[in-house]
UniProtKB/TrEMBL annotation:
NCBIfam families: HAD-SF-IA-v1. InterPro entries: HAD-like_sf, HAD-SF_hydro_IA, HAD_sf, PGP-like_dom2, S-2-haloacid_dehalogenase. Keywords: Hydrolase. This is HAD family hydrolase. SUPFAM superfamilies: HAD-like. GO terms for molecular function: hydrolase activity. It comes from the Bacteria. It comes from Stecheria intestinalis. Transmembrane segments: none annotated. Pfam families: Hydrolase.
Length: 245
């Protein structure tokens, strides 16, 4: 009885994936995945050294507060960077380091800090559920990321991961939550919005996918999300049976 109840709960959680709302099967042909925060951990030795040095040699002092400042301002600048005003991730990050120098009293070698940040995009550790997800997923996987594909490719090669395509901000002159990245992924995958799902860890992922007509799934590994508008999973493996088999 207990096993039966668990199976029923599992089926209920993912019924939105395998039915179209009318009780009919809806075939998912591809999976779109976010990169940073979904595949790549928002941590690791490079980003931790960068934020530690920024905190130690500025008015902030607390590395955790420095990291929060960094990612908050990065997301703001990425959202502003669009179309004719588009800037590369490298340019945005260097501008943030200069902003930290002006506003936070940072006294550091900015080029060294920039290189640590670039290393983070390539060499940060993966979440533990990523490799099992890739091993078991039988559907084509496309990565949608603000980060450049040349950095993502290094990470994938190092970890022996294969994807069918990478869509990054440079390709469409836009970052999340703008829908252009998701529309480009649909073009590359030759799928309609109803034939894919997108898994990401941020509201920007949810908004961008939704605006492109794609079903978004919020990955909340820390179980802190409170977003009734989206389906929530706590591990990539939660969706593997319904999505990829």
């Amino acid at each position: 009885m207990r096993l039966h109840a668990c199976r029923l709960r599992y089926i209920h959680i993912f019924s939105f994936i395998i039915t179209n709302g009318k009780g009919e099967e809806s075939m998912i042909k591809a999976v779109f995945l976010d990169y940073t925060g979904t595949i790549l951990q928002e941590g690791g030795p490079d980003i931790e050294e960068m934020t530690m040095r920024c905190a130690k040699n500025s008015n902030v002092k607390d590395p955790r507060a420095m990291m929060e400042w960094w990612f908050r301002n990065l997301r703001i600048e990425e959202e502003r960077s669009y179309g004719d005003s588009f800037r590369s991730e490298e340019d945005i990050c260097m501008d943030l380091l200069k902003k930290a120098s002006r506003e936070l009293g940072l006294k550091e070698d900015l080029n060294q800090l920039q290189q640590l940040n670039i290393n983070y995009w390539m060499y940060a550790p993966l979440y533990t559920d990523v490799l099992p997800f890739f091993e078991r997923c039988t559907k084509p996987i496309y990565i949608i990321s603000n980060n450049s594909d040349r950095y993502i490719s290094v990470c994938l090669k190092r970890n022996g991961l294969h994807v069918n395509g990478i869509v990054c901000g440079d390709m469409v002159k836009a970052y999340k939550p703008h829908k252009e990245l998701f529309e480009k992924a649909l073009e590359l995958s030759e799928c309609s919005p109803e034939e894919v799902i997108h898994i990401g860890d941020s509201i920007n992922d949810m908004k961008g996918a939704s605006d492109a007509g794609i079903t978004p799934i919020l990955l909340d590994r820390k179980k802190k999300a409170d977003h009734s508008d989206f389906k929530v999973i706590h591990s990539l493996l939660e969706g593997i049976r319904s999505v990829c088999e």
